[in-house]
Write a structure and sequence with these properties.
The complex is a heterodimer of chains A (294) and B (267). Chain A has a two-stranded antiparallel ribbon with strand order 1-2. Chain A is mainly α and 294 residues long. In chain A, strand 1 and strand 2 form a beta hairpin. Chain A has 2 domains: 68 residues, no CATH class; 215 residues, MetI-like (MetI-like fold, Orthogonal Bundle). Helices cover 75% and strands 1% of the residues of chain A. Chain B is mainly α and 267 residues long. Chain B has one domain: MetI-like (MetI-like fold, Orthogonal Bundle), CATH 1.10.3720. Chain B has 12 helices and 2 strands, in the order αββααααααααααα. In chain B, strands 1-2 form a two-stranded antiparallel sheet. In chain B, helix 5 packs across helix 7. Chain B is globular and about 70 Å long. Chain B starts with a helix and ends in a 5-residue tail after the last helix. Classes of the chains: A mainly alpha (294), B mainly alpha (267). At the A-B interface, helix 1, helix 2, helix 4, helix 5 and helix 6 of A face helix 1, helix 4, helix 5, helix 7 and helix 8 of B.
Chain lengths: 294, 267
């Protein structure tokens, strides 16, 4: 990261201009951070409000409205089991789908970037993978339901893992294909001269170099699965119900309960945030490895 | 996997030529499509979807790319921001839509409050058809710009630094370096991001479903929304499938044209 920031200065450009650019970049950073954070802040304060206060404009707890923990208390005490059950399911399904999609996607992406296939152009194969995502979920839900029913997989995490892996694999295939495409083929040839097999080349040379994209694609695949609602709603009813369905349950006969929407939104964001913090390290690892190549 | 891909497609195609009736489905040929042609709801949904796709793709790709370029300089806090920027992708769209109701609330919601504070007019965010679409766009952009940002940043970071520095020695124009060196090198990932955004934007559903409920009237009903209401609420699976087939053809056409124009980066 540091070598990158020194890059422009060593090129002989005026340092003042560079400093101005850095300040501008910093300003953009802060603005973007505020833009990203505002809805979360809003959710946080909404979760601390009494129902009557929700539509009264106020930003600062204690000063503008009396904060209450009653929403959190009733969520965690009365519905805690359902919520943590949902979070657990979401986690298992998200991780499972992510691992399957990334494993298949990496192999397919590597194949698409390094080999030619007979009869098909690689571009058309990519399009075929992508076309998986063309149909609206509402149209494909029925066939999936029949499938699950026939295989006795309704309300299991397995069917949701399989479904979500299918949906997110196109992302993994296309992004990994691009990442492998950006790696100089000479590096692989050098390894091959030293006697490495195709699989060794992929695992030892190409995959570490593609690590930033691998992590990015993994996060995206996990995020899609985490938020997927319609299939989870139709294919699960008790044991396998994930968090996205639990969140949708905040709308009841009294209308939308904004305070519970907020608590659940925040609760649902917590586990992925922790995961992202953990894998963040690996994005950086990928970076330093990437700097070696040239 | 293949079964999961082909069977839903075949089933949808089969349904699209059937009419759902009390006594089950029967074959009706292209009558669903004729009905579609004369359905003002379909044309409205098509218009809404196309407007949304164009605006959402352009804005998310533009903002995300600019952010990635601006923050690829190693400014302090970039790493923290990258972690932060991933969070919107994990915010459940359903919850976001509901939360949006309070954020865009017309009488004293925070957005209108800020507009009035800046000396501007309060806007009917959810009560006016066009502004309702803008609200949905705003939520969508908030959620999906990070996706573009993340992928483009990953691509930028794998651009060999030596190439950029060598180019800097040749010319003092950063714009030239950007357009001649950087963009050609991230062309592949950028194209993938654009096509993925197009495909996803076509299916926008959760946010209009919760934020505007397709309204006011049918002003923010997308094609997917139409498929959902026709199939799962009105139980007219045949007609819904025909909307889905039209969507499939449309997205396929857009994707093929996009790959043609964007060139054969992978051939």
């Amino acid at each position: 990261m540091t070598s990158r920031s020194e890059g422009p200065n060593t090129s002989g450009a005026a340092p003042l201009a560079e400093r101005i650019k850095n300040v501008a970049a910093g300003a953009i950073l802060i603005l973007a951070a505020l833009w990203v954070l505002f809805p979360f802040y809003w959710a946080a304060i909404t979760s601390l409000k009494q129902p009557v206060d929700v539509f009264h404009l106020s930003f600062v707890p204690w000063l503008q409205f009396a904060p209450t923990l009653s929403n959190w208390k009733s969520e965690l005490v009365y519905r805690g089991t359902a919520i943590f059950h949902g979070l657990g399911n979401s986690f298992v399904i998200g991780l499972g789908a992510c691992v399957v999609a990334m494993a298949l996607g990496t192999l397919a992406g590597y194949g698409l970037s390094r080999f030619r296939y007979r009869g098909w152009r690689n571009r058309d194969i990519s399009l075929f993978f992508l076309s998986q995502r063309f149909l609206p979920p509402a149209a494909t839900i029925l066939p999936f339901f029949y499938f699950a029913q026939r295989l006795h997989l309704l309300d299991t995490r397995l069917i949701l893992i399989a479904a979500n892996a299918t949906f997110t694999m196109p992302f993994a295939v296309l992004l990994m294909r691009d990442a492998f495409h950006g790696i100089p083929i000479e590096m692989e040839e050098a390894a091959r001269v030293d006697g490495a097999s195709t699989l060794q080349v992929l695992l030892r040379i190409s995959l570490p170099l593609a690590a930033p994209t691998l992590v990015a694609a993994g996060i995206i695949s996990f995020a899609f699965t985490w938020n997927e609602f319609l299939f989870a709603f139709v294919l699960s009813y008790s044991r396998a119900v994930p968090m996205s369905v639990v969140i949708a349950g905040t709308q009841d006969v009294m209308g939308v309960q904004f305070w519970y929407v907020s608590t659940r939104l925040l609760l649902a964001i917590l586990p992925p945030a922790i995961v992202v913090l953990i894998v963040q390290r690996y994005i950086v690892t990928g970076l330093t490895l990437g700097a070696v190549k040239g | 996997m293949l079964a999961f891909t082909i069977f839903p497609l075949a089933h949808t195609l089969y349904l699209s030529v059937e009419t759902t009736g009390l006594s089950g489905n029967r074959f009706t040929g292209i009558s669903n499509f004729v009905r579609l042609w004369n359905d003002y709801r379909f044309w409205s949904a098509l218009r809404v979807t196309l407007t949304f796709v164009i605006a959402s793709v352009l804005l998310t790709v533009f903002i995300g790319t600019v952010l990635a370029l601006a923050l690829n300089r190693g400014v302090r806090g970039t790493r923290a921001f990258r972690t932060l920027s991933i969070l919107p992708m994990f915010a459940a769209p359903i919850a976001l839509g509901y939360l949006g109701l309070t954020i865009f609330y017309q009488q004293g919601g925070p957005v209108n409050n800020m507009l009035v504070g800046l000396g501007l007019r309060a806007l009917p965010w959810l009560a006016n058809g066009n502004w309702a679409l803008v609200s949905i766009l705003a939520v969508d952009i908030w959620q999906w710009t990070p996706f573009v940002f993340l992928v483009v940043l990953a691509a930028l970071q794998s651009v060999p630094l030596e190439l950029v520095e060598a180019a800097r020695l040749e010319t003092s124009s950063s714009w030239a370096v950007l357009t001649r060196i950087t963009f050609p090198l991230i062309r592949g990932p950028l194209g993938t991001v654009i096509i993925l955004r197009i495909v996803e934007a076509f299916k926008v559903f959760d946010i209009p479903f919760t934020l505007t409920n397709g309204g006011p009237g049918i002003a923010t009903r997308s094609l997917t929304y139409d498929v959902y209401t026709t199939a799962l609420r009105n139980q007219n699976f045949g007609y819904a499938a025909s909307v889905a087939v039209v969507m499939l053809v449309l997205v396929m056409a857009v994707a093929v044209v996009f790959y043609r124009i964007y060139g054969s980066a992978y051939e």
